[in-house]
Amino acid sequence: MKSVFRKLRQTFLYSNKVSKYLLYAIGEIILVVIGILIALQINNWNEKRQSHQLEHQLLENFRTSLQTDLSLEIIPNIQQLKTDTLNLNVLINTFNNKLPYNDSLKYIFGSVMYSKSFKYEVTAYKTFENLGVGIITNKSLNDSILHLYNMDYPELQYNIGNFTNNLTEFNRPLLRRLFKLKQESSNSIYFIPVDTQELYENVEFLNVLTIAKLNFTNIINQTNHNKNRVERLIEMINEELKNSS
User: Fold this and answer.
1) Engineered SS bond to 108: which of 46, 87, 182, 242, CB 3.0-4.6 Å?
2) Neighbouring residues of 15: CB distance < 8 A, sequence distance ≥ 6
3) How is the chain split into domains, by residue range?
């Protein structure tokens, strides 16, 4: 009988040890899981912080690029196009009304030899593509950037380049035949008609002036459209930087 009780007592003691071990093991597992979860949370937080810093820097770069586009390309192009359009109006009016030729016209005949290109900063956009377009979390801002760099800018660049090439191709033979070119300074050339009467009666040249004016007007409108989009995009970037700081 004593041996039976002894065995039972040993069994209970053993069971108690197993229970304690199981509790200990479970506790350790829980601690490990908690540690992993904390580590993952810290890692996610670090990744979000780094992503936020990258987004912030990228938006600042975009803002600088867009401001450069405005000051060096878009606004000067609009100003030059408006000046050239005014000059074309003077020439068209002179031709249509057969006004007496005056010496001031020699400085504006060159307006029909419009030679301009549109170049825009692409460094920020290349970085944007490399990082992945999802780096910018504001969908409206993200879409506006994609639209500007994939549609508005390339279309304007193509139209200006195409118009310049066509104008040069059609005008150069006329200018060589109808004008004498004089160099006034190292960077200034003016045009003197060989025969004013012949020039006034040259329908081809008048057509060139008319088409040039139409194209200048279209490009001014398109460039103004880009100017408005760029200015609005800069405002959106400023708002996003302010809200995320």
Assistant:
1) 87
2) none
3) 53-244
Rounded CA-CA distance 132/25 in Å is: 45
Do residues 61 and 126 touch, judged by C-beta distance below 8 A?
Answer: no
Question: pLDDT tens across 178-227, in order?
Answer: 888 877 766 677 788 888 888 888 888 888 888 888 888 999 999 999 99
Q: Give the orientation angle of helix 203-244 with respect to helix 153-178, to 10 degrees.
A: 150
Least confident of 45-54, 117-126, 142-151, 187-196: 45-54
C-alpha distances out from residue 52 to 56, 77, 180, 200, Å: 6, 36, 62, 65
Structure pTM? 0.76
Block residue for tokens 């001031």: 104
- Contact between 92 and 217 under an 8 Å Cβ cutoff? The reply is no
Contact 169, 112 (CB under 8 A): no
pLDDT score at 23: 58
Sign of CA dihedral 207, 212, 217, 218: positive
Side-chain half-sphere exposure of 202, counting CA atoms within 13 A: 18
